[in-house]
Write a structure and sequence with these properties.
The protein has 232 residues and is α/β, with parallel strands linked by helices. It has nine helices and twelve strands.
Amino acid sequence: MKIKILLAEDDTSLGFIISDQLKSDGYHVTLCTDGADAYKRFNDEKFHLCIFDVMMPKKDGFSLAKDVRKINSEIPILFLSAKSMMEDKVEGFKSGGDDYLTKPFGVEELQFRVKALLKRVNIQLNASKEEVIYKLGSYIFDSENYTLKNDTFLKSLTKKEAKILNVLIKFKNQVVPRETVLNAVWGQDDYFVGRSLDVFITKLRKYFQEDESIQILNIHGVGFKLEITDNK
């Protein structure tokens, strides 16, 4: 299995150089040029390592790392920055980063940092598979093929419906902030996409109406909660 790396770097030239080097080292690399797009891609796909530039448009690297950590507390995060000040490095670690590489850097140093960060997750990479099929009450959700079904119901979800449901599942039986869902699916949390989210939530509620143990609750002023009651 190829190790998948999410690279967020707004300097396109440097981004392509890093991407090409990592690909030549045998990694699968997804390159994004802003933090918002990187966060959307993180929620769309499964990655084993993140490399984030600190200064990026739409969402900076530190904010991106904080959002990633809300969803995945284990994935290694390497920051790239032109700033070498100690307070910047401290901020990087406070944001959830595991390592900090100051620009300019050499190819060998990048390779060493990537290998060192991956060492602690190698066992997990070799021994586990990411879950793509979820059991939700009487329903089965296939997150790869965007299908939701039970014995009497089969629905092909739109990509956005599936992405919203994916985020709710990650926070199952917990409150997920509204802005977390919006940023994960749309990459922004303004009024207009907020109205779209409400429409999609209403649709998802209808899909689950055959099972009373499943509810998507609206937590006023905060967000949503996918609540699944274990009926015994």
